[in-house]
Design brief:
Elements lengths: L1 E6 L2 E4 L4 E9 L4 E9 L6 E6 L5 E3 L7 E6 L4 E6 L8 E9 L5 E4 L3 E6 L1
Parallel strand pairs: 2-11
Antiparallel strand pairs: 1-3, 3-8, 4-5, 4-9, 5-6, 7-8, 9-10, 9-11
Length: 118
């Protein structure tokens, strides 16, 4: 079993920055691809960014050039640096991870609220 715990969310003014962290804990696990998703009220959950174990990254078009995903495999942690934040970025941000070698299991964090004011 793996637990994902997000941190770093909060209130920020438009144009500001936040850095989200997601730490994985448990026993006998290997983290593969990890990602950040977000969901606003009444909206579907959407992919924000993903990163493979070798640090190959993918971003949603809406955040390219503003957000950066990274990871520290030794610490089992993934980060999301968010710059030039817009009110449209307001959502609950969720950490996601694929765990395993042969058979993969998917895990989700509880989410952290990001609110961007105008």
């Amino acid at each position: 079993q793996v637990q994902l715990v997000e941190s770093g969310g909060g209130l920020v003014q438009a144009g500001g920055s936040l850095r989200l962290s997601c730490a994985a804990s448990g026993s006998d696990f290997r983290l593969n691809t990890m990602g950040w998703y977000r969901q606003a009220p009444g909206k579907q959950r959407e992919l924000v960014a993903r990163i493979t174990r070798s640090s190959f990254t993918t971003y949603a078009d809406s955040v390219k050039g503003r957000f950066t995903i990274s990871r520290d495999n030794a610490k089992n942690t993934v980060y999301l640096q968010m710059n030039a934040l817009k009110p449209e970025d307001t959502a609950v941000y969720y950490c996601n991870a694929l765990v395993g070698i042969g058979i993969l299991a998917e895990y989700w964090g509880q989410g952290t609220q990001v609110t961007v004011s105008s």
